[in-house]
């Protein structure tokens, strides 16, 4: 096995990548929310500053000024309407991006395990892999691991699994599985199903969303919309998974780590539970 400390450092780099991606998504949402909230004021501010003698608009014709005025009014109205509806388009885009992060986790973590823990090749799921032997042997170590991962995912039919099954199926097969607490499991499933209707059903609820997430209360064909608190629960659930998987691998390495991961996971879990309690009381 590669030196444990080297594996830990590589793991921490991968972990930080996911944390950064999630953090950047949070920041993106806050910036867009700020922009929408201030859009009407910015339109009115333009009317004031445009009267300054050195403002670029002084070279505009009367027709151009009128056109731009109507454009600003249109944008201001759209911003006001979106704010009143809870910024549904923003959270639709963010949901799609967040699930892309989940899919990357589902690929990169098992690949890291295959690459860092060669003993995984003795597991039944690997020993039973079939394929052209000579072609496999001629590939680089990284290419072999990519091939093994794809075969494992195919054999486990992970793309058909619901929610955390997309991640946990392969991790369990590689002996890195573990418990996913109920609130996190529920939110990851909802995230997956909602993202599906956003991407493939033009935001309209289908039978899969209705059956898999009955607590949402949608009927077939309803427009699906999520709120800021809902997306907050989604992103907390994904963060919980990242932290939990990191903790499992560190535990497998038998390295003493001075961190507060378990406490952080508990905080995330409580935040999701509080969200679910609030939703159920509505």
């Amino acid at each position: 096995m590669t030196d444990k400390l080297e594996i830990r450092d590589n793991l921490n780099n991968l972990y930080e990548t996911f944390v950064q991606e999630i953090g950047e998504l949070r920041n993106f949402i806050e910036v867009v929310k700020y922009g929408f909230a201030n859009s009407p004021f910015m339109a009115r501010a333009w009317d004031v500053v445009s009267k300054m003698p050195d403002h670029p608009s002084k070279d505009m014709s009367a027709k151009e000024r009128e056109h731009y005025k109507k454009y600003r009014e249109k944008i201001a109205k759209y911003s006001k309407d979106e704010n009143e509806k809870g910024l549904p388009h923003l959270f639709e885009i963010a949901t799609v991006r967040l699930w892309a992060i989940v899919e990357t986790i589902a690929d990169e973590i098992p690949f890291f395990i295959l690459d860092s823990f060669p003993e995984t090749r003795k597991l039944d799921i690997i020993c039973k892999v079939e394929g052209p032997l000579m072609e496999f042997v001629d590939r680089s170590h990284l290419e072999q691991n990519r091939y093994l991962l794809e075969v494992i995912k195919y054999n486990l039919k992970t793309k058909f699994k619901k929610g955390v099954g997309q991640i946990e199926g392969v991790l369990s097969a590689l002996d890195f599985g573990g418990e996913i607490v109920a609130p996190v499991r529920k939110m990851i499933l909802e995230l997956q199903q909602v993202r599906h209707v956003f991407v493939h059903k033009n935001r309209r609820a289908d039978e899969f969303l209705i059956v898999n997430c009955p607590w949402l209360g949608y009927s077939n064909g309803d427009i699906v919309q999520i709120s800021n608190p809902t997306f907050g629960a989604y992103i907390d659930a994904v963060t919980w998974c990242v932290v939990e998987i990191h903790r499992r691998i560190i535990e497998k390495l038998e390295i003493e780590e001075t961190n507060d991961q378990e406490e952080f996971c508990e905080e995330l879990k409580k935040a999701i539970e509080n969200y679910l309690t609030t939703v159920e009381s509505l």
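DSSP finds eleven helices and no strands in the chain. Residues 4-35+87-281 form one domain.
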